[in-house]
## 1
Amino acid sequence: MRLRYNTRLYPSAGQRQALARAFGCARMVFNDGLRARQEAHAAGLPYISDGELAKRVITQAKKTPERAWLGEVSAAVLQQALADLNAAYRNFFASITGKRKGRKVAAPRYRSKRDNHQAIRFTKNARFCVTAGGKLRLPKIGDVPVRWSRALPSEPSSVTVVMDAAGRYFASFVVQVAERPLPAVDAETGVDLGLGHFAVLTGGRKIDAPRFLRRAEKKIKRLQRALSRKQKGSNNRAKARRAVARQHAKVADARREFHHRESTKIIRENQTVVVEDLAVAGLARTRLARSVHDAGWSAFVGMLEYKAALYGRAFHRIDRWFPSSKLCSACGALAGSMPLGVRSWTCPCGAVHDRDVNAAINILAAGRAERLNASHTRGRDGGCRPGGGQVRPPLAVARPSEAGSHRGAACTRGTD
């Protein structure tokens, strides 16, 4: 499998100027290509092919006085910028035709020089390399010092140089990594993500929510007020903006480190991990948006998924509409309405449930049932075979008085 290894770069003043030129040239080529295709579409002309577009905005543009400075940077940077535009168009066309699954993808947009996040990419054809002294050699930029936290497991196929809003530089290497299966264990767990506790596991372990953004909110507000008082376009305003960006970067780094630590621990201790497919995008439009973004559930689940594949563990998602909190894990009875304020409840069968622990138990049980369904209906080769039956009980038919959705019923799904 392919993974990204990120390392910190420390370019000199001259190298920062060279990188700024490369960022600007890549942005200009991207915008020129986008403008050419938009103008052709508006004029009713055929779609400009990738090869013809490269000839117009790179090869021929370098010969004009207006774009002669494109020759000051590596040609690979310009070609990769155009490749990004072509990929964006392909994703857009696949989305509107229904070939691409998931959320709809918008058409490509112009890149702004005022964007504080800039990136360029070098492939093997650009002949970048890591020197014997541990520096990253980039064409027409030089040997950039790197702070290595770990060695690369294999030769990288590409590297992306990124400058974030805080003015920091990073190198993101794409490397091929072999699977490293861990010794098998008997434990399995379901993971219930929430806001009161970041995660609750089937065994009853509760991971506290660190709330990194909430803890840094007071300092961020003070820096934001200082930024608002600075005159637009002044150096002091630029310094204040970087101070705000650095504080946000600290919050993001702490959250990422927390996600890595907890996801690695869960994967090492369990052979199978089952999570709920949360509608994070929908929850981010509610009054809980700040807390949802602060938790970073999507990033955490993504780490669980790729680490399970890397270390030979099983990973499964269940449907987001599964009533994990309201379903009694002892008798299977489904409770009625259960607001978020209800943290424990008693089933008519006599079982007393902690809301989050009960949800984690049900999530694991649902994951087992769905995997068993798949094994009954498919052979080891993945092909369908007769004789498989449904393991989970069928859904009950709604009565006429029960049909329909209540207003706001789906707004808080997944926050328990």
## 2
Amino acid sequence: MAEIADWNTRIINEFRANGGRVGGQFDGAPMVLVHHVGAKSATQRVNPMMYQKVGDAYAVFASAAGADKNPDWYHNLLAHPDTEIEVGTDTVAVRARDLPAEERDPIWERQKRDYPGFAGYEAKTSRVIPVVLLEPR
């Protein structure tokens, strides 16, 4: 777990130092920093995530790299949907909404097409990977 925290911290620092851009495996990918509050702990947290622009909102994907359970941030956003994201150098107040299948599916299909690694995550798990829409408020 500490290894993931260190990895996230490095990406967050690079994101903030470079106006929202990161290199390495995420070079050129649309990235956002999602702030969230622990559902049980009430601890403030930040996670870097790839996003897909959907109108004026941002879709993020609870893939957990194909793990068999949803990531903690997903549960945190469901418990505390009013939050903030960092996009480039801007901070945007948003409300998180877990998308039902009819909204989720076309966004998810586009994400898999544009970034095939997400199709690989889907193949590794039997769960339906949630798509969360972060809508400006």
## 3
Amino acid sequence: MQLRYAFRLYPDVAQQAALARAFGCARVVFNDAVRAREDARKAGLPFPTAGQLSTRLITQAKRTAGRSWLGEVSAVVLQQSLRDAEAAYRNFFASLTGTRKGPKVGPPRFKSRKDTRQSIRFTANARWNITGSGRLSLPKIGAVQVKWSRTLPTTPTSVTVVKDAAGRFFASFVIDTDPAADAARMPQTDRTIGIDLGLTLPQTPSGGTPIAVLSDGTKIDSPRFLRRAEKKLRKAQQELSRKQKGSKNRARARLKVARAHAKVTDARREFHHQLSAKLISENQGIAVEDLSVAGLARTKLAKSVHDAGWAQFISMLEYKAERYGRTLVRIGRFIPTSQTCSTCGAVDGPKPLNVREWTCSACGTVHDRDHNAALNVKTAAGLAVSACGAPVRPGAIPAQREETGSHGFPTGNRAA
């Protein structure tokens, strides 16, 4: 499978100017491609092909006075921008016909120079390389300093340079993983686990609020990164609101807010990477609920749901399970895991969220609400076994899983 390895870049002033030119040229070519297709649609003509767009918007455009500056950047960057426009249209049409999984996507929109995220991509034919001193040499940009947090396991197939909202530069390398090396890193185990995700749990003895409870009784504390940074974020946002629009002071204040949010995002992502890697390494099978995170994010618990980052955490579990040969099962969200007795299987009815313990009316077992739910998640996924080794409740059908992959950026080092 393919993964991305992201590393921080530290370009000097001249390299930042060269990257800004590359970002701008890629954006212009993308917008020209969208405009050409929209003009053809309005005129009732067939969409121009990728080859026609390449000739018109890159080769011929470089010879004109209005687009001669396209020759100042690598041609590969411009070609990849056209491919991005093509991919955006394919996703849009596939979404219209229902062949694309996930939420509906709209048609491509014009990019703006004020967008908080700028990116360019270099493929192998761009002749980029990593120098002997550990710098990333990019065509028409130069050798950029890289902060290597680990070595790349294989030779990358491409690299994407990204500037995020906080003004930071990253290099995202795409690599093909080695199945044999992955199997050696994560040997087979006979352990399985069920996970109950939640927010309204009582405080643990360590003082934290658990974000998840495992079927073995382990409670995982939520660091609550956003809640802890709220005071600092509020102050930075207030300072931004007082600055005059269009001024340099406002630009600096906006950057301060973006950096504060980036710290929260990075800390949450690192926590999810460490937790997901630990669960994958210790368990051969993992069961989770197929929660409607988008629906929960529209309730009064929206801030806490976003702070927990369930979708990101489950996505990490998915691709790491696929990489290391583990089994991840999503059970239906309508299975009454909190209402069912994990001992006798009796359904005891719905209970308010403030009820954290309850006694089964059928067998008299006293249950911790979340531990009982985690046990039921594991059983519903078919991962629980009896003393003779047979599944307790065979026949449970796991929910369909989305295709794993790299969506959005920065995602951190996905090989954790």
